[in-house]
Amino acid sequence: MAVVSIINQKGGVAKTTTSVNIAASWSSTGRKVLLIDLDPQASATRSIFGEEEFEKTIFDVFINRLPPEEAVVRSKVFSIDVIPSEILLSGVDIQIAAHFGREKILKNKIDGIRKKYDAVIIDCAPSLGLLTINALMASRDIIIPICPEYFSLKGIELILETLKNLRIGLGHKVHVRGIVISRYRDRKIAKSTIDEIRQAYGLKIFESYIPDNIAVEEAHHKHLPVIDHAPLSGAAKAFHALAEETWA
């Protein structure tokens, strides 16, 4: 059973798109998947369920001592279980700052429930605050989605520095499963950036680049996985291939 965080503190890199579509693609091969939305913007929750409101969310798991299994909602469309998010989560960093063991709250909470699944995916907030530290402490691996542009390099450096600090300060080692190239366009600058990332960090870059494809945005608006919304699109084919690449 794998716990994998999808992480990048930079916004606009298709982090949520990667999270929900990898989850749906893994599920389509018969795997039992739980997606935890740990972003206060609740982008993954909205992508899957639209404007539906939930009485119990990941906020209650953190703050109100709710057992995580009581916050789980089934998405029949995506064929995954979800622990939804909400805007109140934006204040959790401050609320748990003084707690003993504050970095391991999520890990301790999901230790029991995660055994029911083949994979748990955590869609992280676009920051490196306490919520994201909780996600990393609960995870064995991370996947880093990036758009192939110059500023992606700095973002990777910050993530790797955070992983180093976790290893040294808290004794927890997180493996970088690989980098997902999102919103890819076949341009010289994109290829140059990808080559620079490969040379600078020696990290695995998944071969299935996710193209800049309108089908992805349409799928979000219709609250569908892109593999169902437009199964013959380049994006759907890329996510199918990426699902197999990212599974470990």
Q: Secondary-structure blueprint of this entry?
A:
Blueprint: E1 2-6, H1 15-28, E2 33-38, H2 43-49, H3 58-63, E3 73-75, E4 80-83, H4 92-96, H5 105-110, E5 119-124, H6 130-138, E6 141-146, H7 151-170, E7 175-181, H8 188-201, H9 214-222, H10 226-229, H11 234-246
Parallel strand pairs: 1-5, 1-6, 2-4, 2-5, 6-7
Antiparallel strand pairs: 3-4
**Estimated helix fraction:** 40-55%
Which sequence of strands runs across the widest sheet? 3-4-2-5-1-6-7
Q: Please state the structural category.
A: alpha/beta
Note the beta-strand portion. Answer: 5-15%
Quickly count the domains. Answer: 1
What is the third-level CATH name, the topology?
Rossmann fold
Uncertain regions: pLDDT < 50 for 5+ in a row?
Answer: none
Report, as a whole number of angstroms, the end-to-end distance. Answer: 10 Å
Would you count the extended β strands for me?
7
Q: Under the CATH scheme, which class?
A: Alpha Beta
Q: Can you name the CATH architecture?
A: 3-Layer(aba) Sandwich
CATH homologous superfamily heading: P-loop containing nucleotide triphosphate hydrolases
Number of helices: 11
Describe the main β-sheet briefly: 7 strands, mixed
Tertiary shape: globular
Question: How would you spell out the order of helices and strands?
Answer: EHEHHEEHHEHEHEHHHH
> Any idea what the radius of gyration is?
17 Å
Give an overview of the whole structure:
The protein is an alpha/beta fold and 248 residues long. The chain has one domain (2-246): 3-Layer(aba) Sandwich (Rossmann fold). 43% of the residues lie in helices and 15% in strands. It is built from eleven helices and seven strands. The chain has helices spanning 15-28, 43-49, 58-63, 92-96, 105-110, 130-138, 151-170, 188-201, 214-222, 226-229, 234-246, and strands spanning 2-6, 33-38, 73-75, 80-83, 119-124, 141-146, 175-181. It has a seven-stranded mixed β-sheet, with helices on both faces. Strand 6, helix 7 and strand 7 (175-181) form a beta-alpha-beta unit. Helix 1 packs across helix 2 (43-49). The chain is globular and about 50 Å long.
